[in-house]
Design brief:
The structure holds two protein chains of two kinds.
Chain A lengths: L2 H29 L1 E5 L1 H5 L9 E7 L5 E2 L5 E7 L4 E7 L11 E8 L5 E6 L10 H20 L6
Parallel strand pairs in A: 1-2, 5-7
Antiparallel strand pairs in A: 2-4, 2-6, 3-4, 4-5, 6-7
Chain B lengths: L1 H29 L2 H5 L1 H24 L6 H6 L6 H7 L4 H21 L6 H25 L23 H30 L4 H33 L9 H26 L3 H23 L13 H29 L10 H31 L5 E3 L1 H21 L10 H25 L5 H26 L6 H7 L2 H26 L1 E8 L3 E4 L2 E12 L3 E12 L2 E6 L2 E5 L4 E5 L1 E4 L3 E12 L2 E10 L2 H18 L2 H15 L11
Antiparallel strand pairs in B: 2-11, 3-4, 4-5, 5-6, 5-7, 7-8, 9-10, 10-11
Helix pairs in contact in B: 1-3, 1-7, 3-6, 5-8, 6-7, 6-8, 7-8, 7-12, 8-9, 8-11, 8-12, 9-10, 9-19, 10-11, 10-13, 11-12, 13-14, 14-16, 15-16, 16-18, 18-19
Chain lengths: 155, 663
């Protein structure tokens, strides 16, 4: 091979390798994206069925219940407008509390029950997961908007 | 008084840094010896003043001076003294001070151990480091002053985040920062070479040990962080592909590429522009890591700043550093040149391939880390990219890299022959296949993932042995010990670091393949079984720590009739922050860890308990330790010191300043 040909081969191999790895990275990326939804969005059937996603909000006060096995817990995540029941088997993070923010990842079943595979820990007592805060803000904004758009029926 | 002294020391350090970043550089351009000679004393004085500031802050912490806002936010009278000292870097302002202190120490080290370098080079290097210091000192003084007063003073502090009250946390940030900041030396050397327009083998020989030390320390720092996550945060996980972890992993990946690229530049004079580019990239990613972690963009235990001014400052600083260095690179890289030629099959081409793979891996991590942030920042929705993505990317990218890692050290420079390599490595390959089949079966059941990983791990180990034999063949005959002693330290460093990778892979694969866990509801007196061990929950007692109260469980572990260990996991409640913490109990053996943690309490004597059997998990950190020690061994190779001596002899003899002539 002449040096010029050799260089072509080298460049060709390089480009092919890069293209291959780029496509690998991008396809893996696309396959593994996890989207975030608020309870209101889940209630409006915007969330995917049979695919894992995240939902966040507040743990509704008084909703935490534990099965007899001591391991399975039920609680309700709410954005103050809508709420979604969650079931999780495992140990809850240290800072999981009723009335506090939470983000959980899992799938929603046909019965509307959210089966969490993961309940995300917070690191600080006062810290609200941004996603959960966002869900609350969205719900508040929506209620405010609705009250403007829909005037009282009496008029 | 003392805090003001510290504040004043920081201002003085900034003034010196300004002088250091301008005068020596101008002096080097104009050939003004007096200005160039300023670089060394300026760097030393700057380091001293930062140390004074650091000492003042430490004093404020130890003496519980809650009139300092930062101390009041991160300490408490109940906090043990060791954690008060660690509290210095427990928050945003202090960790920046630590960053700057590390930079000061690296500058100091460069000023001391650079006697063999030409004066122009030293001046330029220290001047570039001075510029970085200006940025950080300005940032501290403008937007995050650790010495800010709190009036009236707080009666008591708000305590250090309990997650950080751990021995691992005392050492993790300094190590990590030392590694991060260490890449600034390689960066400064690259900038100096670009300004000078000259980059040769001697340049690589000067910058190489610095980069290797930085890389080794970064490796150890990341390992410490991972270990901390394992027993404090993680419910037994050791790596979560959390953005904060990724922030430290990206500079590591690029740094690994840089260490190898520098080797080629030193030995063969090749990859010059590439090496410079990697040095810029490694340091930029270190800055990006600091930005990601410290700006409040990521909310986690690491993110302290909520002040947007800070984030914008770091972002602007990052843009200036990356922008100006890449501009300089684009302008001057052609002067530096590409370096020597090599064939399609050669050690160079294999190292280049691995460099590219490491860079693609770093790019993939960058994508997975930044894309969700960018999407969120532009209001396009919230997504997250979890471990499955990173795992899906890393396995196919790293497998060929690890395979080449076994071959490259045996391949000839410039032109290697594949058939010859195949002959030399046939036994290593056979051994690897045997290991790939035997190990999974010995562990209980076959798993393709484990088999494949063992193939790679054994391949690296076996090729290292072949390599050692080949090297010994060049050494004159004699007693084996004497012959082994003939080989240079850097060679052993390389072998050790590569073996570390093998040990690491074995650990990761065996944990992933064979770990067992169970979550059980246990009342006092109950027993649970896992992997042949019996765990008996014998008691739960209330205990009191210095700044927390805790429920401490007692779990006796037996195997058959033989007693193994008694574990005491705790559920702590840190009083000041009213924050619960799980303190796992671990029995760390060479071939397995037994890990027990208390979950939620159902009644005072009934708890949910999580039990893990984790085979070979210790090997993960053992492998990192080997990599770190290997790197340090290589960095302290005799030839660097021999050069230093030769260099000072030259200086003494008033011969040429340029030690590269000898290279």
């Amino acid at each position: 091979m002449k040096p010029r040909h050799k260089r072509f081969v080298l460049i060709g191999v390089g480009i092919a390798g890069l293209a291959l790895s780029a496509s690998l990275v991008l396809s893996a990326f696309q396959k593994n994206l996890v989207f975030f939804f608020t309870p209101s969005q889940v209630a409006a059937n915007e969330a995917p069925v049979g695919k894992s996603f995240r939902v966040g909000g507040l743990v509704e006060k008084g909703s935490l219940k534990r099965d007899a096995d001591g391991l399975t817990v039920h609680f309700v995540v709410t954005d103050t407008a809508k709420s979604i029941p969650v079931v999780y088997r495992g140990i809850l993070p240290d800072l999981f509390r009723e009335g506090k923010g939470v983000v959980t990842q899992g799938k929603v079943g046909p019965d509307g029950l959210f089966r969490a595979e993961e309940v995300l820990a917070k690191h600080d007592e006062n810290y609200m997961p941004p996603a959960a805060q966002d869900a609350l803000n969205q719900a508040t904004a929506k209620t405010a908007a609705q009250s403007v758009v829909l005037p009282p029926k009496g008029k | 008084m003392v805090p003001e002294l510290g504040h004043f020391a920081l201002i003085l350090a900034l003034c010196i840094a300004l002088v250091q970043s301008i005068l020596p550089l101008v002096g080097a351009a104009r050939g003004n010896d007096a200005w160039m000679a300023l670089a060394r004393p300026a760097a030393q004085a700057q380091c001293l003043f930062i140390a004074v500031a650091f000492g003042c802050l430490t004093y404020a912490f130890v003496s519980n001076d809650f009139s300092v806002k930062y101390v009041a936010e991160h300490s408490n009278t109940q906090l043990p003294v060791a954690y008060r000292v660690a509290g210095v870097w427990g928050g945003h302002e202090g960790s920046l001070l630590l960053w700057t202190q590390m930079l000061g120490l690296w500058m100091f080290a460069v000023s001391i151990f650079s006697r063999s370098l030409p004066q122009e080079m030293v001046s330029r290097v220290l001047s570039v480091m001075g510029m970085v210091a200006v940025g950080f000192l300005l940032f501290m003084l403008i937007a995050s002053n650790p010495f800010e007063r709190l009036l009236p003073a707080a009666l008591d502090g708000r305590d250090l985040n309990p997650l950080l009250q751990d021995p691992g946390m005392v050492f993790h940030p300094p190590m990590l920062y030392m590694g991060y900041v260490g890449f600034s030396v390689a960066f400064a050397f690259s900038m100096a070479a670009l300004i000078d327009g000259r980059l040769d083998a001697s340049w690589a020989r000067w910058s190489r040990p610095w980069t290797t030390v930085a890389w080794s320390v970064l490796t150890l720092g990341i390992a410490l962080g991972s270990g901390w996550a394992y027993y404090v945060l993680g419910w037994g996980g050791w790596w979560f592909w959390d953005p904060v972890e990724n922030a430290s992993f990206m500079p590591w990946l690029v740094g690994t590429a840089l260490v190898h690229s520098l080797a080629v530049t030193e030995k063969r004079g090749a990859f010059r522009s590439w090496t410079v580019f990697l040095a810029i990239l490694a340091f930029s990613l270190s800055l990006l890591g600091t930005f990601l972690v410290r700006s409040g963009v990521l909310t986690s235990v690491h993110a302290f700043a909520t002040d947007p001014k800070r984030g914008i400052f770091i972002l602007a600083f990052l843009a200036v550093v990356v922008g100006s260095s890449l501009t300089l690179f684009a302008w001057r890289a052609s002067k530096v040149g590409l370096g020597g030629r090599f064939a399609l099959v050669s050690r160079e081409s294999m190292l280049l391939t691995n460099n590219a793979l490491l860079l693609v891996a770093a790019g993939a991590v960058l994508l997975g880390t930044l894309y969700p942030l960018a999407l969120d920042a532009f209001g396009l929705g919230k997504i997250s990219v979890g471990p499955p993505y990173f795992e899906a990317v890393f396995v196919p990218l790293m497998a060929p890299a690890l395979f080449l890692m076994g071959i490259a050290p045996l391949a000839r420079w410039k032109q290697a022959s594949l058939p010859e390599l195949a002959v030399r490595l046939r036994w290593a390959l056979a051994v690897s296949f045997v290991a790939a089949i035997v190990v999974p079966l010995a562990m209980g059941h076959w798993s393709t993932m484990v088999g494949f990983s063992m193939l790679l791990a054994a391949w690296i180990a076996a090729t290292s042995v072949v390599n050692l034999k080949a090297q010994l063949a060049h050494v004159p005959k004699g007693r084996i010990g004497a012959r082994l002693a003939q080989l240079p330290r850097s060679y052993y460093g390389m072998l050790l670091a590569h073996l570390g990778v093998a040990v690491f892979i074995a650990g990761v694969a065996l944990v992933k393949g064979y770990e067992a866990e169970t979550d059980v509801r246990m009342e006092v007196g109950d027993t649970a079984h896992l992997h042949g061990y019996t765990f008996r929950f014998t008691a739960i007692n209330a205990v009191k720590g210095p700044n927390y109260t805790a429920e401490r469980g007692t779990i006796e572990v037996t195997r058959g009739t033989e007693s193994v260990v008694t574990l005491n996991p705790e559920k702590r409640l840190y009083i000041v922050q009213n924050m619960p913490m799980t303190e796992a109990a671990i029995d760390a053996g060479f071939t397995r860890h037994l890990y027990v943690a208390l979950g939620d309490s159902i009644t005072p004597t009934t708890w949910v308990v999580r039990i893990y059997h984790k085979p070979f998990i210790g090997w993960i950190w053992g492998g990192c330790l080997l990599m770190g020690i290997g790197g340090l061994l290589a960095a302290f190779d005799r030839r660097y010191r021999a050069r230093a001596r030769a260099g000072s002899a030259q200086l003494a003899g008033a011969a040429g300043l340029n030690a590269s002539a000898a290279g």
